[in-house]
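Reading a protein record of the kind used here takes only a little practice. The integers have meaning only within a learned vocabulary of local backbone shapes. With that in mind, consider the following protein and its fold in token form:
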Amino acid sequence: MENPESQIAAIVERNKRVEADKAWEVSWIRRITIAVLTYAVAVLFLWLIGNEGFWLNAAVPALGYLLSTLSLPWVKRRWIRRYWTSKQ
């Protein structure tokens, strides 16, 4: 069995990984990367099906994704507040 110091060190390392994952989930780099990839896939798809305005039309899903990431933190806070109120 591990000694208490190594158990604490393992917990501290795990907490660092969890914090990094949380920071990544809300980072603008992640959001922009997903939006750019969404745009690229939409451009390719719209071009393949012969859509005339594929450059502009492909912006719709990418911008929709970015807008959804802006509104979700507010929704999340409200949901957590209501969730914890109903549990107590």
About this structure: The longest helix spans residues 59-87. Residues 35 and 66 are 7 Å apart (CA to CA). The chain is about 85% helix and 0% strand. The mean pLDDT is 91.
